[in-house]
């Protein structure tokens, strides 16, 4: 009897002291990544921009150590990436900063993405491991091939007056993230003005070709006086110019009336990132030169006041020729159906496109720092994030991606568009640790983490 009471007392005492100890001795804090950011805009082949710098700020107790990986392969200080012998060391890790020099991005006809991919900052302390990551698309400015560059001889074109004329953007390597515009460039390599935009008979197609719906006599005079248009590759403010394309003399005159025939069509499925500027061009051949009108969600896009520039939809604007509609800032309300009509006295043609707004994933709910689950119990946790395109989800345990579902631990795909649920049918100690949920779409990657602690059986 006494012995029993004693053991009980000892047990209780022991139990209490354990409780007090765990309360008194700080258990520390699992690591957290406060911020992971790209500090510059990397562009291949632009001196002064052909590197990337990432900064990762983490906290935790004890203070976590920081490591970096690219597409799941760790960067080791002073060692070539992925152990590739003979390749130069392009990365440098200094404190919270990772720098990669001589970066290279994807280019046409080459499936390799090079430095484009998932960069991860991994923070580890004795309590756990967490990471955050960022998808970096390395921009490539593109280039004109020899013979078609700024300093090369102009290309002389003899058009038929009264007929259409299509001038392709001279032979070039496309780049990545570059766009094409035509314009007049000064001898100091400054853009004097962009060309399509003013006259209703000149526009460009999605492939970057310059189109005259019909060549007018005045086009030749103008081309001779301004020296000819150049095709311009633009990437994040950097520009590369082609040689001049000069209309120097009429080959012949051949006028004939033709009804509009659309050559620059709206993309049937347009996707514009939120907060970006988005342009759509509608352009048709035809004589007389077609005139244009546009509709958004079945409502004609018109100036608020006759002759004014402000339109009846916020952030929408036309270039003077009304062939190009610009949304100066894409918002969550910019999506919808756009329709453009080109008409002249002989007929009308139209093109239609659906715009969707892409936005990065955002978590709707956040995990607590720590979750205590009694041993053997069923448990589930939902990672709730929205975004467009709808995000995909990944789960990590102690820094390792979960790949094998089993009877006791599984997770769902984002089928219901409400995220992914990680569930345990009977939790046990091997399930303990830091869990990270990653939500990814084309716009961004976000992560959140929690520490799932499995509690032993409660004493009787
Ligand atoms: C890597 O090399 C640099 C310069 O040679 C040196 O300062 C640094 O300590 C080295 N880092 C490691 C982790 O060996
Ligand atoms: C878009 O811009 C608004 C206003 O500047 C800002 O509050 C918001 O965070 C931005 N959204 C994204 C996804 O960048
Ligand atoms: C996800 O979050 C949204 C926004 O907070 C909420 O309306 C929705 O009910 C959540 N869904 C689930 C299944 O938790
Ligand atoms: C994960 O980490 C926790 C706590 O650090 C540990 O108890 C658990 O055994 C680890 N599990 C695995 C599978 O690494």
TrEMBL record:
Keywords: Disulfide bond, Immunoglobulin domain, Repeat, Signal. InterPro entries: Ig-like_dom (IPR007110), Ig-like_dom_sf (IPR036179), Ig-like_fold (IPR013783), Ig_sub (IPR003599), Ig_sub2 (IPR003598), Neural/epithelial_adhesion (IPR051170). Residues 1-19 form the signal peptide. It comes from the Eukaryota. PROSITE patterns: IG_LIKE. Residues 31-137, 260-358, 360-453 form the Ig-like domain. Gene3D superfamilies: Immunoglobulins. SMART domains: IG, IGc2. This is Hemicentin-1-like. It comes from Hydra vulgaris. The gene is LOC136090570.
């Amino acid at each position: 009897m006494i012995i029993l009471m004693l053991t009980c007392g000892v047990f209780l005492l022991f139990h209490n002291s354990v409780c007090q100890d765990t309360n008194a001795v700080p258990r520390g804090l699992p690591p957290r990544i406060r911020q992971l950011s790209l500090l510059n805009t990397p562009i291949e082949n632009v001196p002064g921009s052909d590197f990337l710098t990432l900064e990762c700020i983490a906290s935790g107790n004890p203070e976590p150590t920081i490591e970096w990986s690219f597409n799941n392969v760790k960067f080791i200080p002073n060692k070539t990436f992925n152990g590739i012998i003979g390749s130069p060391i392009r990365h440098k890790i200094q404190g919270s900063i990772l720098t990669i020099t001589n970066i290279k991005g994807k280019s046409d006809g080459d499936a390799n993405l090079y430095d484009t991919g998932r960069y991860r900052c991994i923070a580890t302390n004795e309590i756990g491991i967490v990471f955050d990551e960022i998808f970096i698309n390395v921009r490539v400015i593109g280039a004109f091939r020899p013979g078609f560059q700024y300093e090369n001889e102009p290309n002389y074109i003899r058009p038929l007056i009264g007929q259409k004329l299509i001038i392709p953007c001279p032979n070039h390597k496309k780049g990545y993230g570059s766009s094409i515009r035509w314009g007049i460039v000064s001898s100091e390599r400054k853009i004097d003005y962009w060309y399509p935009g003013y006259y209703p008979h000149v526009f460009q197609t999605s492939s970057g070709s310059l189109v005259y719906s019909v060549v007018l006599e005045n086009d030749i005079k103008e081309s001779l006086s301004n020296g000819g248009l150049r095709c311009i590759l633009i990437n994040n403010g950097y520009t590369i110019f082609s040689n001049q394309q000069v209309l120097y003399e009429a080959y012949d005159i051949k006028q004939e009336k033709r009804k509009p025939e659309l050559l620059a069509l709206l993309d049937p499925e347009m996707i514009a990132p939120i907060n970006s500027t988005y342009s759509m061009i509608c352009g048709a051949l035809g004589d007389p030169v077609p005139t244009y009108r546009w509709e958004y969600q079945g409502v004609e896009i018109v100036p608020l006041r006759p002759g004014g520039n402000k339109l009846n939809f916020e952030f929408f604007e036309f270039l003077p020729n009304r062939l190009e509609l610009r949304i100066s800032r894409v918002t969550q309300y910019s999506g919808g159906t756009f329709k453009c009509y080109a008409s002249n006295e002989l007929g009308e043609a139209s093109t239609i496109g659906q715009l969707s707004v892409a936005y990065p994933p955002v978590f709707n709910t956040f995990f607590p720092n720590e979750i205590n689950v009694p041993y053997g119990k069923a448990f589930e946790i939902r990672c709730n994030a929205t975004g467009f395109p709808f995000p995909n989800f990944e789960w990590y345990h102690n820094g390792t991606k979960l790949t094998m579902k089993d009877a006791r631990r599984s997770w769902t795909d984002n089928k219901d568009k409400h995220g992914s649920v990680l569930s345990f049918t009977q939790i046990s100690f091997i399930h303990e640790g830091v869990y990270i949920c990653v939500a990814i779409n084309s716009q961004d990657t976000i992560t959140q983490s929690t520490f799932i602690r499995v509690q032993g059986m409660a004493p009787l």
